[in-house]
Amino acid sequence: MSEHSILVVEDEHTLRRLLEYRLGKLYDVRTAANGEEALELIGDHAPDLIISDIMMPKMDGFALQNAVQNQMETRAIPFIFLTAKADEQSRVKGMRTGVDDYITKPFDIEQLLIRVKRLLERTKVFQTQLDAKIGQDFSQKLMPKKLPEVPNYQLFFHNSPREHGGGDLFDWMEAAPGSYFLTVGDVMGKGLQAKFYAFSFLGYVRSTIHAMLRTTQSPAEIMKRVNQVLMDDPPMEETFASLLLLHWEPENHRVTYANAGHCRPVLITPSGPEIVEYSDLILGLDRNAEFRDTKVILPEDAALVAYTDGLSEQVLKSGEMAGETGIVESIEAGFGESDPIDAMLTNLIDRSESAEFGDDILVLWLQRQHTAVDWFSPFAADAQP
Amino acid sequence: MQVTTMSFTVEPCSQETVIVRIGKALDFRNAAEFKSTCQTQVRSGARNFILDFSETGILDSTGLGSIFSLYRQVSPLEGQVVFAAVSRPVQVVVQLTRTYKVFRQFPSVEAAEEALQ
Q1: A337-385, pLDDT tens digit by residue?
Q2: A interface mutation test: which of B33, B92, B96 has the most A CBs within 10 A?
Q3: What is the pLDDT of residues A60-95, one digit of tens each?
Q4: Domain A5-135 is classified in which CATH homologous superfamily?
Q5: A279–B98: do the CB atoms touch at under 8 Å?
Q6: For chain A, what is the radius of gyration of the CA atoms?
Q7: Considering the domain B3-116 in this protein, what is its CATH number?
Q8: What ipTM was assigned to the predicted interfaces of this complex?
């Protein structure tokens, strides 16, 4: 199957067959003998480009072009007129109605192929630019502009969306003074579609948290509700997402989390890293899925690191994906550095096959510091005899 | 009769059960094709899908998503999606997403066939 489909509208049998044959080597070609037939075919499935004769029985090229122009869905389809009429009048009329190109018979088929190619390329470039712009816009909206500022803690966050990356998301809110909800997730799929779903999904998550906070602070209960909402809403039918919901209470250094099939976070302390193991089923699969809360206490100097699968799927020099083991190694390299995420990513890239990341990447690094006394009195030690 | 599409081979095994050979990869490049292959099968009456992962080296999140779509499609019809001969890279993804809670796993296609009879 070709990437592009072309509709050829021509009443003369031989020419129609010739065009079908020549264009058919490069594109998916459908043919019609007049405007009426063409409109039917367009109704079934809109082509990427239309090549049409002008003088035809039943419905001529001008009428067809007019009908295509008047429909929102078909208005943007590139249109090439093909006609024996070399007269200036038709050309002017064609141009005035928004025809993209105009070829007079007898024509050189190679010339036609070049023009078709050029028109399709132009449309594609335009589409790609538009996608990139919308994608970038979504990506920005999927990430908060600032991070919580909490005594004794330092938060680091890094996100680099890629045009063809997936739907990574991060969000946080202060539910009550000293009580934070942090959300890290990944909506399955690639490209603009995934970003769009991630954007809608984030809306669900936010509104569910807000609505439920009146009655619960349990991430597991909120997760269960998000899953049900996702399962019950037909537009989200094809949406699957992994989600890590963290309820963080900095004052008692406690993080309570529920994990729906998301990359398992890593707890790292001066004595070493460990994977925060417990997790449940990914969202969107089973309406009755159960989720469980797990508590993690952050000791002094410890960090809790969450990330998305763009990192663990990064291919290393060995040809294998980094996986959890690979990520843990990089987290160890970042631990204790002034910019731990930067050090962690540098380490991972150094071990990678490619010098850049192949997918969206997202890292959240929640660092507990020395107790306030030590932190704010760096010279305290010197004062001791 | 075997039906071979670009990368997926489908073998009927009973009236309601088919085996889909996943091949080397199920990822963003062929997930759409996997989806349409399975849809055709569901339309012609298949309810149970045995996915053969014996040769699979790559399963990414888009690929897994297409399996999830299939699951959502057949589970209201009392159908099942089971994994057979799961390779190590596939096992990693299944573990990470905790989807072994939904997709039963069998050491071989034969074992899966037997269980689904």
Answers
A1: 999 999 999 999 999 998 888 888 899 999 999 875 554 555 544 444 4
A2: B96
A3: 888 898 898 888 888 888 888 887 756 566 666 666
A4: Response regulator (3.40.50.2300)
A5: yes
A6: 29
A7: 3.30.750.24
A8: 0.79
